[in-house]
Design a protein that fits this description.
The protein is built from 9 helices and 11 strands. By secondary structure, it is an alpha/beta fold. Bound molecules: adenosine-5'-triphosphate and magnesium ion. Adenosine-5'-triphosphate binds next to α1 and α3.
Amino acid sequence: MPTFTLALSKGRIFDETLPLLAAAGIVPAEDPEASRRLIIGTNRPDVSIVIVRASDVPTYVQHGAADVGVAGKDVLLEHGGDGLYQPLDLEIARCRMVAATQRGFDWSGTVQRGARIRVATKYVKTAREHFAAKGMHVDLIKLYGSMELAPLAGLADAIVDLVSSGNTLKANDLVVVEDIAPISARLIVNPASLKLKRDTVQPFLDALAAAVAARRTARGIAS
Ligand code: ATP
Ligand code: MG
């Protein structure tokens, strides 16, 4: 009977968390890309993994359906982080949250005039807070994906989205006009789990922290 549950999303987060889990002695029994199963066992009979949407990870951990999880800072900013302990930056899935417009859009002129700007994004809360802090007037348009299309199709003047290489922006003739936040994935923990399952959770946190530190050292030596 598993007593310790980890929430992960498929894809980038799962793939980049795998080596850190291995360093903590945890190896999933299945590849979620290959299997339709949503609950995956591991080499440890007391540890299981639930596969959820990236934006649902904080919800599972907050309600204790998972003891710990791995979530992008973007997802955590949007969630708000209520009821979550965030002890560790895993330094994986790194990218930036930015505002971008079509090349040629007069962003600074529009901002200086105080004109309303239409901003399409999946990150409505984060974008609202960012622009409000700058005293800018924006109308937010909620999207669930393919933000890059919005300015091209005339839905919005700007988007707030994640970029890493910048290739997707470039391919769609978009340029970054504001840096909003550096993004990486964090370990999140249910506070009650930390208290009640400390004998399992604390060694897991310590092992992940050591793995992140070792990786940082290795990177430093390599460069
Ligand atoms: P879903 O597909 O379920 O809507 P998603 O698109 O957010 O979710 P992923 O694309 O796997 O799922 O992204 C998961 C997390 O990885 C994001 O929350 C973010 O923290 C990070 N991420 C997203 N895009 C990039 C990127 N280009 N480079 C690095 N990390 C990224
Ligand atoms: Mg995606």
